[in-house]
Amino acid sequence: MAERLKVVVLDDDPTGSQTVHSAPLLLRWDADSLAAGLRHPSPLLFLLANTRALDAAAAAERVNEICHALRPVLEQALAAGWIDRWLIVSRGDSTLRGHFPLEVEVIAEELGPFDATLLAPAFLPGGRTTVNGLHLLQGEPVHTTPFAADRLFGFSHSFLPAWVEEKSAGRIPAAAVQRIGLAELDAAAQGASGAAALRDCLAGFGCNAVVAVDAELPHQLAALGAAVRDVTDPAAQPPGVRPRRLLFQSAASLLNGLVPLPPQPLDAAGLAGLRRRDASGASLSGLVLVGSHVPLADAQLERLLQEPGCEGLEIPVAKFARLLAGPEPAALLASLEQTWRARLEQRLADALTPVLFTSRGEVSCSSSAERRRLGLELAALMARLAAALEPRLGYLISKGGITSHTLLADGLGLGAVELQGQLFAGLSLVLTPPRGDRPGLPVVTFPGNLGDADGLRNAWRLLERSQASEPDSPEA
User: Fold this and answer.
1) Which parts of the chain have pLDDT scores under 50?
2) Structural domains in the chain?
3) Distances from the Cα of 176 to the Cα of 135, 210, 212, angstroms
């Protein structure tokens, strides 16, 4: 019988499963939900922590809560034979935004000790690579891109050891960060001696060293994954040698190295064909939500709204913020929400795809806490509107991590969804449970930082043409 390795992924937003398929994504972590996830046949289990939407204290509390709930269920799964062993990954943003090293430190405290934390932010389908310790976006140092200017998670270094020192406020000096380079990974992919050297390298780490991992091509992460599986497997160790315990802070591509998967069952046209239909067999309309505010999302929204089959509805963020700060926000917002819902329903009645989006540009906030609250309130509003329309929808496209998580967890009230696969490279489609209040709804979770200017429009076109024999399939 093949070994049952389970890789448990704490995902800081709902888009980090963007290189894999056929896995459960949990939005709750009660014992029953965790047990069901660990019994699932997939070697992957995603826990959608959504910590990037939280401040540091709340993020630490949530990760602690998840790990505290997870530990006894992992022990149960091992004892019952559901799994043979497990690895844990803190999945973070490939453009280096998020609560690092906070989250891996909480994981280590609750589920450790670990011999090393491997830092592997490469997301190869999205052009995020790491070469000689330097993290790049389409060949440019990531600290020179707009993502580094993020008002909540900004940074000034692309060289990963220096980035670690910066994010840890000097607690982890750059000189203490160890590295695994491309040459070592290529050698491991090419032959037995290189693979043995990489295993020896991994086995030599201790005291939870931070290790920055290069990656430019899939075979390099495949070689790393094979070495990780070997050194962490008790059955593969010589007598008297203990298996190593490794923790991971990574973007999505490392997952493909840790757990090689077969091809996804449905291609892009097959995924688009999951669009819901009415009783007569006619395709139901879609809805697009755009909450992300990175420049790429702005460009994608602009292109989508040029489509004659789409009609936008803008939520004016400055006005929304003023109402939140006013004396009676609930009553005023309820009235506006009713108006916006009626306008969305009219677009559906006119056989158009409504595109609900927040106004572009930055709104001045007095603090990071106020900015987070505003973002969460906007996401909640969009989620409520989408949930009200759900019975009439054939699919949903949700642009932005916070927007997507709030839609799934709060708007649609889901405890889990099933990842079907990738509509385009890096663009996941999930399906709501077949039994429940909102059965079989395809939801495309579109990261804010993914694709080119036409990516959102191409995804919409593919879903809209799902009845055609040969739908377009351009890269996102």
Assistant:
1) 468-476
2) 5-258 (3.40.50.10840), 268-464 (3.40.980.20)
3) 18, 8, 11
